[in-house]
Amino acid sequence: MSDLSRRAFLAGAGLVVVAKSSLAIPSVAWSAPKTGVAAPVFTATDTGGKAVSLGDQHGKIVVLEWTNHDCPYVRKHYDTGNMQALQKEATRQGVVWLTIISSAPGTQGYVNPREADELTTTRKAAPTAVLLDPTGVVGKMYGATNTPHMYVIDKAGTLMYAGAIDDRPTTRRGDVQGAHNYVREALQAVAAGQPVKMPVTRAYGCTVKYA
Amino acid sequence: MWDNAELMRRLCAKLVIALALVLAAGAPARAATVPPTPLVAVELLSETGSVRPGETFWIALRQQITPGWHTYWGVNPGDAGEPTRIEWALPAGFTAGEISWPYPSRISAGIAMSYGYEAEVVLPIPVTVSRDVTPGTTVALRGQASWLVCEKICIPEEAPVALSLPVSADTPRPDPVGAPLIGAARRRLPVPSPWPASFSATPETVTLTVATRDLAPERVAEVWFYPAKWGAIEHAAPQRVSLAPDRITLEVKRGQLAEATAAPIDGILIVTERLDGGVARQAFALRAEPRSSVSALALAHAIALALAGGLVLNLMPCVLPVLSVKTLALVNHAGGRAVVRRHGFAYAFGVLASFAVVAGALLALRAGGEQIGWGFQLQSPVVVTLLADVLFTVALSLSGVFVVSGRFASAGQSLAGRAGYAGSFFTGALATVAATPCTAPFMGAAVGYAVTQPWPTALLIFEALALGLALPFLLLTLIPAWRRFLPRPGRWMERLQQALAFPLYASVAWLLWVVSQQAGSSGVAAAMAGLVLIGLAAWLYQVSREARASWRRVATAAVAMLALGAVALGPVTSGGSSAPPTTRADGWEAFSTARLAELRAAGRPVFVNVTAAWCLTCLVNERVALRSPAVAEALARKSVATLKADWTKRDPAITRVLGSFGRNGVPLYLLYPGHAAGEPEVLPQILSEGAVIDALGKL
Prior knowledge:
Number of domains of chain B: 4
Distance between the termini of chain A: 42 Å
CATH superfamily of chain A: Glutaredoxin
Number of helices of chain B: 18
Largest sheet of chain B: 8 strands, mixed
Radius of gyration of chain B: 32 Å
Oligomer: heterodimer
Strand order of the largest sheet of chain A: 3-2-6-5-4-8-9
Strand content of chain B: 15-25%
Helix content of chain A: 10-25%
Radius of gyration of chain A: 21 Å
Structural class of chain B: alpha+beta
CATH topology of chain A: Glutaredoxin
Number of strands of chain A: 10
CATH class of chain A: Alpha Beta
Largest interface: A-B, 58 and 61 residues
Shape of chain A: globular
Number of strands of chain B: 23
Number of domains of chain A: 1
Order of helices and strands of chain A: HEEEEHHEHEHEEEHE
């Protein structure tokens, strides 16, 4: 402890100060949804202009993937083909994969519907749909802080997993190999009707570029 | 030249901003995402101008960051981001430690919070030089630094870094650029929190309570808790802080990881204080224990520990002579059971009452903000001198120099100066006073827990300790059957009584040495003059008993005067002083929180011995375990730095260290591992050579 601050602390010693003071930093209210309970129901527009609602997916396992194609962490998973492989593996088994873009206009990752479809084609991605959320309403409903930020919802609409794609929070492409993929593990557990071993992990990546 | 470099850097930074603005304004969103690189200029600094073979010294990675952008805290980057890393390619025999992370600031991005550094940060790294380098040559430290730099968007960057330094056998000089920057960065490293912390959790919130002792709430501008891990609390949520002199309470939204609140929460608490000339920011590394488990472990456990500790105290060298003599009195009291029983109660009452007085004073003073702990009364040379006076008087009586009550010249009744139940009561008081310098096993944890509790709970624990101390003698008086194990009375009792005087003389000699540590030679002179007066008073008392009544009255008055004189000499001892030298003669360096942080950051294991001259247990431990050649060799082999925190006199900083380990008294032995993140091992309060060597072996 530096001498200066010790003196400052000691200045209060011996005095009986009755007054309490309170400090708080105001901020916007928001809430991350809990796993094990119903996932928040939302409706968003896909790149074809069609409204997609979570309520319509009843009876299907749903994956939500928050993305930003210029984020180095997202690029790690797309440039290595890791994300596309997982999308194909999941959709082949009937999973609904919704890629969501919550970047506000003018921020990194914001795209118009045409650009979004172009990205899907050039990257050989295989989501069920790409949803555009430029107002960030859906992102904040899910407390999505990162790209990539991943969620798995079971057939009954219960949120089963929220967090990172894997356990290697880096931008190094070499780290994809040998990483423990939490989403794949969650999908297998949900498909088998078993509890997810790690229902919540620390998501890593860039921040979502909300307005 | 240096100024020029600085100018260039600023120009570059401005250029970057201008460019970024142009791009952001004119181009579509996609183009704005590729700002010019690098955004962070890095260089390696050294604290010294040269290096010595085999020594550990400090280097640092300096990051100069484009305004508006930030890099990340290595302990927990927050909701996004990634810490800076260096992949080293060092010459053979060189090792680089982990980065010591200065405390970060908060960078908010809506619902995500990052912990990181803006503008500039210096990240200190300890490097150990090979023993085999030759003075006169130059060594080059090379590495590849990589980091993530973010503003709204994030860019991974990397760059090679290198530093060349001459090898010299001379004492290194501080590097004019590196030394001040690295020194300043080290002052931003969190220090171990002196305050115990705990938390409670509801499904929605986590409430952190930090038991401060000396906080001035009106000066505190801001308090913020930075958890070491994601998951227990929501990083971006507001933290509601309320301040009282003895406590900081911080309520925050609970994090997403449900199981995170089952374990202790680690993190740093940054307290910003308003000072006359600005603000001072201090980062404390703390571990908050879950409160439910705290109170569960709690009371029953603490009481059991206190009771056990009290029982063992009976066997301690300071208490045993006093009690043996008292037990001898029982032998003579073979008669009236009721009388014996009442003596037992009087004794137990004496112990309980004096414990209540000492513990009450301790708690009252602590509530008043004093940084004191158990044994605090012995931190005053006046009290030590008076204790020596009392023990000397008892010893003279045992030696037969004087007998208080001529008609009842039995061993027990002469003890503590008074016959009858009052005598038993004072024996209890004396046992308490004599017990303070000794710490029994189990006591440390119980007393440490007690002082963090509200006063009724605290007092309950202290009284459990007292009951433990009183119990053996009390049981002996209550259960006549047990007294059959006592030997028969006889002449041996007189001899034993005389023999028992000598441990007390030894205690007096030791207390005089304690006075010499506290108050120097003038203090010892005053205390010894007091003992001479007591000797004179004892002799005068005894010879006057056979004189005529008038003479006896004169003599009694003289005895009273002499005794008062001896007592009056006590305070004289407080006049002297003896400042402890920085490096102590016995090879142990004086403890300070800063020195500990420095050694740990340098990657050295550290043994901390918290001790006091008046703590007999401590001295015994030092003699049998810490100073043994085998331990010294083991310490040297693992190159363990040894720090001695001397609590002989009052020292609030050391009291805080004790508090942070849940203790309130000495001894305390801590062994910190070499890696900076490791938790220290707390060694037992009764040390053996083997236990210390085992602990060192595990490093």
